[in-house]
Design goal:
It contains one helix and eight strands, in the order H-E-E-E-E-E-E-E-E. It is of the alpha+beta class. The protein has one domain. The strands form two sheets. The protein has a five-stranded antiparallel sheet with strand order 1-2-3-4-5, with helices on one face. The protein has a three-stranded antiparallel sheet with strand order 6-7-8, with helices on one face. It is elongated and about 95 Å long. The termini are far apart.
């Protein structure tokens, strides 16, 4: 083999290796984003399922207080039995930045009071409701009419949640919208 043949052979080999390396890197970059998005979506789905299950179980507090404490577009506070013990907990679902959080206060004393510190856990991450100016919660009365005055907690019988999830808002596609809803079982007929 001559020197020219060796140089040509090495050039072709290097070109093939660069093309292969570039393809593999591109595959890993796109797959990594898809895997992150899929993971965030699965986490958000579990989070919204748990959240709606808790909302469905809203009930009168251990001290007899009305099941709903407060309403907000991105904040909902109510009483529900969520952990299988004797007392009914105060549950606080709210958005903080890009996270959906759940705070729980266990009742103490007899009669029960809800004055302890809230135990906070993250339900879902990569939530884009605030960035997209989209409400997390929507409330409806017994006739299915929208409750827009958040002071009218006694009218609420049905809660709908819309959770927007996106790992990177600067990349396509647009945020995935996960929706679910629940009737407040213990208030049906009131």
């Amino acid at each position: 083999m001559g020197i020219i043949e060796v140089v040509v052979w090495i050039s072709v080999f290097i070109s093939a290796m660069l093309a292969l390396t570039t393809s593999v890197l591109y595959f890993y970059r796109t797959s990594d984003y898809a895997i992150q998005q899929a993971s965030a979506t699965a986490s958000a789905q579990r989070g919204i399922d748990t959240m709606i299950r808790n909302v469905r179980e809203a009930s009168y507090a251990s001290n007899g207080a009305y099941p709903i404490v407060s309403l907000g577009a991105n904040d909902f506070r109510f009483y529900a039995e969520i952990d299988g013990d004797v007392g009914v907990e105060q549950v606080h679902l709210y958005l903080s930045g890009e996270a959906l959080l759940k705070g729980v206060i266990d009742p103490t004393g007899d009669p029960a009071v809800y004055t302890g510190a809230e135990s906070v856990s993250t339900t879902s991450e990569d939530v884009r409701n605030i960035i997209q100016s989209t409400s997390l919660f929507t409330y409806y009365d017994k006739d299915g009419a929208l409750v827009s005055n958040y002071a009218e907690i006694g009218d609420v019988r049905y809660v709908s949640a819309n959770l927007l999830v996106d790992v990177d808002p600067n990349r396509s596609p647009t945020p995935l919208s996960l929706r679910s809803s629940a009737a407040l079982r213990n208030l049906i007929g009131h």
